[in-house]
Fold each of these.
Amino acid sequence: MDFHIPSFVGYLIGFTHLVGLIAAIHALLTVRTAQGAIAWAMPLIFIPYVTLIPYLVFGRSTFDGYIMARRQANREMRTAIGTLNWRPWIEEAVTARRSDAYASLRAMPRLGRMPCLANNEVALLINGEATFAAIFEAIRGAKQAVLIQFFIIHDDDLGRRLQSLLLEKAAEGVAIYVLYDRVGSHALPASYSETLRNGGVQIKAFATRSGWLNRFQINFRNHRKIVVVDGIQGFVGGHNVGDEYLGKQPPLAPWRDTHVSIIGPVVACLQESFAEDWFWATRELPPLILPESYPEDGVLCQLLASGPADAQETCSLFFVEAIHAAQERVWITSPYFIPDEAVFAALRLAVLRGVDVRILLPSRPDHYVVYAASSLFAFEAVRAGVRIFRYEPGFLHQKVVLVDSEISAIGSANMDNRSFRLNFELMLLTVDRDFASQVESMLNDDFALAREIALEEGKETHRLQKLGMRVARLVSPIL
């Protein structure tokens, strides 16, 4: 074939459209939601030159080979863990069933793979200084093992402080296991991990790519944040390891985020979640430690671990169930607001039931396309009667749900499609009036620093801005 004649261009265009059509059919057959399938299929058919490569990287959200491999790894992990006399939870789980508030979450016992457990001590950690002071203090006191998992670890001042502390504890003979997400921590230099490894720390990257065809796969990110010290104390929430989480990096500073410290039976669930991810990365189990005793009283907690290999869309269904359970109020904070149809419908129905529905969002964007899509959903929510607030002092990154007067949830899950279906997430559900009162007080302080979006704002938005928002919403299912 003469590659210099004009007909070659025609062959190339035709071939590109053929591949685009095949990819569009693949999207229709594999993407989990109708909106996501359409969002991919239409551009793949009409402008494949632009969308084929992004689809290769982002689009294959139900990569069957990965899901099967992940489920198999989980089965192997559970077989291995079963020899350790694990899950000492029967008495606590029976106690949990006596809670009327937890009973309102009728689907939660089956939705979560882990039981609701009594007798936990929980403490709010508001913003980065309090969070990392508590985490570093717990690690300094470690005697046996420390399990650490973050989506992002930066080689900055905070990251190096963590590195030094882990090297110090490893030198004392404490077993240290660190897991980070390869995509989220793409900027982490190899020297950071190598220094830890040379100091006796076990450190691995979580990655979901498998095989030649999937070498560009960057979906299925592990967004979980876990620290467990000696099987006794655990931490979960929204913070990653980086100076921005201490509010040291404008223009998003000050950074608003929330973590939780936990002591009690639910820490075993945190260890099991970490073990699943570590086993996927290494085919080995980390040390799993059960304390000699638990608190004699405390908070009911359920750890909700979700991910793309789940049989159901656990994270999305959690939001739907929590919103449907609300009788008086449901307050939600999230950096991103791109709900799917089920979650958005649940919010509208809650308003119609007379529930006080509030959503707190950031006023500053960290991702402009996501912010634009979130803004359009926010205007639509306001028209439906949902009260939407913009947090003004800095970037709001916390992920908190408060339902009525006893139920709260804090963790890593955002209110968007990526958390619902593509990321590995973790939310700590708590059922306790006193703790919910603390969460309410924290959120009231946040609302006092926020501006409520008025109904007129959507109408006054410039048409060009509205066009940009609608384009952003068109691709929102794949963000």
Amino acid sequence: MSHAREVLAGIPMPVSQKSNTLKFYGGILFTLAIAAAGTVASNLPVLDRIGAMLTSILIAVLYRNFFGYPESIRTGIQFSAHRVLRFAIILYGFKLNIDVVLKQGGWLLVHDVLSIFIGISITILFAKLFKGEKMLSLLLGIGTGVCGAAAIAAVSPIVNADDEDTALGAGIIALIGTVFAIGYALIRPVLPITPVQFGIWSGISLHEIGHVAAAAATAGPNALENGLLAKLGRVFLLIPLSMILSFWTRRKNTQEVAKRAPFPWILIGFLAMSIIGTYCNIPKNIVSDISNVIGPFLLAAGMVGLGLHVHLSHLRSRALQPVLAMLIASIVLSVFSYVTLWF
């Protein structure tokens, strides 16, 4: 970033330094361009079912495997994959209204805690039985239990996950979650539950906020409101879960590695944005633009940076067992959450 400061100060830069600066900003613009293309393409039939983020990741993965990794602009891509992505997660905090969760959804937190426990534990258990990769399985379990790709992106630096695992996890969770959301909407008319119960069921069992909104909206505004409230409880629980994971990582690793384990500052920023969005008098349209437009777009750009590390040849060898484990966990979570509606 010193290059940027020198440019702003009017200090002449050597040719090589100017070239590095252009490559840096070129890499960032490259990820933003793919995210923009993914956002536009997500309005097309079929792609409108999987959303802008997954579409952007798919474009990035296809580019990587057909044209190779763009080494000349690596620094900018890495900046998007880490710094921009983390900033997007911080902005994601605007989606969490702490006051609403604590005052209106307190009783739903019990269901949300169970959802997180089931999502993580069942995924890890079956991944171990299937001899699947531990890190990818952990990320998929967290995505299943908490809030999809956003949770995976948030905890990845805490558990020292690499870029390929993070991108694979985010893409898989978005795709599987979309399938489940469509399935919920299709079976809703034959289920013996009220619209409010359907909304709550969606909120405590589906993977991402977008999935909950898509499914619950089919049952009406009351279902949508209760579904989002239940889901926000799981987003809220991302904060203590990340603290637990940070402590666990430091205890598990050697003393030397533990010293390098990052403190989850991203969650501090996430909580700060939640507090600002909840208790500060910010116009609702501004909060909505940040949480529903700017934040998701930057999240997609960050995921593009990660997606450029994914080798399609690795999908079958690395992802099959974790995906099967996650599917089982998702089904168990759906059934368990449905049964608990009656208690």
Amino acid sequence: MKSDILVALSVSPGISGVPALLLAVLLAAAVFGGTVWVWPRLAGRGVRPVLGRAGLQLAVTLTMGVPLLLAVNTSYGFYGSWRDLFSSRHDGPAPAGTDPSGRDGLLVRGTHSWRYEGSDDPAVIGRVEAVTVRGAGSGLSARAYVYLPPQYLRATARRRAEFPVVVAMSGFPGTTRVLLDLFRYPRLALEAVRAGRMRPAVLVLTTPAVAPPGDAQCVDVPGGPRAETFFARDLRAAVASHYGLTRDARGWGAMGRSVGGYCALKLALRRPDAYRAAAGLSASYEAAKDADAGGPSGGDARHRQENDLLWRLRNLPQPAVFLLVASSRAGGHQDPRTEEFIDAVRPPARVSSLILNRGGPTYETWAREAPPALEWLVSRLSPP
């Protein structure tokens, strides 16, 4: 079953938006103009003129570089806010009623403060917890944010097991805060539920880079990090145990952009016992190859083949999963392999496509795709 979704949405800019870039350009122009104006006054061979000229050159260089860096961040969404850029931790004390010990593989480090329409009451907008997940099977760990909708917070233990769970991943390189500050997943979920477009769901926001400084791309690397095991087994077990959620794959979905999208699609195709549905936004369809180390496959050609999504679809039986791929008709966002991926899917697997009229590989494009993709994904999940 194949279907298309055509959308045209807009998002609010942040650190990666036009206002920040415009401000940086204006600052660079002002510094450059000031340098031209002051330079004649710094002629001479004394210590002060030399230091003055050196300082002005440094100021021009730095301010000229900022717009470039912001433009790159706009394209790839590495950081979601200035706070994300300059801070490494933003967590407060563990909220009352939680077990911060991490005995179940999940350590609650604090809560993320956020507001919606003037309210910061968890009973109204839900709660976002900052957590660390430690994998017993893989030996890996990752920081994440868990969004608990208000319906979950007031549900009984039995009812909590009926909530669908979505694991949303950033790209690489990228930070988990991007999913809060740029994509605003908790807000998207809250608005969709209030509008009746989506059932309440628990969101796990994380990054596919669970074995830094490299990127294992959700692959169990031969003789190396077992990233696939972490996402398919450890993360699910820890989150389900701590929050009383279902472990049944029918209640779990994954989504992400770029490398995160590849991870999501791969997890559904390779581990249908863990994830029933997946959405890939501008996803790649194979693990990137490192010329020196052989990439996540460690130089093993057969292993690399098995982690190539197009090869799997064409050569192996397909599981009964739901898949969504997002792209655009124009604007540099179209990967020709997206059509190949769609054409290669056959029953019992099902595929849908989310096609924009235009869209480049920027966070604005991904943020336009995220709301309908999230709603689509939750609609395919049915916890027993």
Amino acid sequence: MPSPAPTADPPWPRHAAAAVRDLRGGMRLVMDGVALGIDRIEAAHDRLARVRPAVRGARIAQPRTGWGTVIYHGLRGTAGLAGGVIDLALASLQASLADPRQERDSAGPSPRREALLAALNAVAGDHLQRTDNPLLIRTRLQRAGSPTPRVLVLVHDLGLDPLHWQTDDGQDHGQALAAAIDATPVLAHYSSGRPVAAVGRELASELQAMLSQWPVALQGVVLVGHGLGGLVLRSALHQAGRCGMAWPARVRHVVFLGTPHGGAAPGRVLAWLARIGAGRAAGLLPLARLPRRHSAGIDDFLHGRVLPADPRAGAALPPDADAGLPPTLRAHAIAGAVGDGLSDGLVPVASALGRAGGAAGGPLALPEERRWVARGVDHMGLLASDAVFRTMRQWLSA
């Protein structure tokens, strides 16, 4: 009699540890919100105590004296202790769920999670960095094909992630462009709410590490940045050049898609973030002050800033007019134009074409044949437009 077939191991919850890690990040944000709430209550208490004459003759003590000090310190201590206990318990659960098999048998990223995480990082990436929150997206590069002598680096926009190079109908224009120019696509992933200069410095280091160990002889590198990604590329090129890195000399072309070289309109940026999902992410944040402040990444997007700020003056350091673009590099700019034809619904045409200077300095020195306007194409449409694809293919094939 044949022996019964062995029963298969029960399927391991491959994403359990990662889900708990996300939960830890969410709970840290909740406790940040509690701490902020205590600060706001104390501030309201302080304002009320300063009102003269006193309310119905009752004198309200200052919150930072007597029992007020004890109460508010106690509230903060209790909140901090509770947050620490919760984080420790979740960290223990995360450790117990971790399994090496996950590394060998991992599924691809969930588009919904990646989109929400990208939106969350857009509106609070600098806060996530300061608080060492697990939800922070770390700057990294991912090769998306077999190595070839030519490399195509794709850098996504504010509030987006590498999956957004794929269109809603399943087409991947990043992969298609790489195939058209016989290049290996490399996808950048970063927190778009952090300062552009900080991300640019990290991207420069990541490119140096990857390209210096490229498996085959490298013949050339092409850079494509969408929106904020273009500012990140300008910053990476500038800082890599100043540090003497070798990879900028390998770059033959850079294409800017709807990049706000001269900045963007604040109202339109916030409306656009709400449309792509960042509005919902902001609603999830318990940081009550968030709707009234911009993350560093959003602020850099609004002002076209690519270089570090001078901490003494609070202004961008004076760069050269091209903010680090090597003279041997062929730069190209594409702008979308909808409605009245003055913007892509987010970035003005003059800004996207580099004709308007922002915090990075003066206008870009581009010949007119390397500037092009995609009529009837909005900011997100630049990723899916066949006309934009054909124009880039023509430029990059030259």
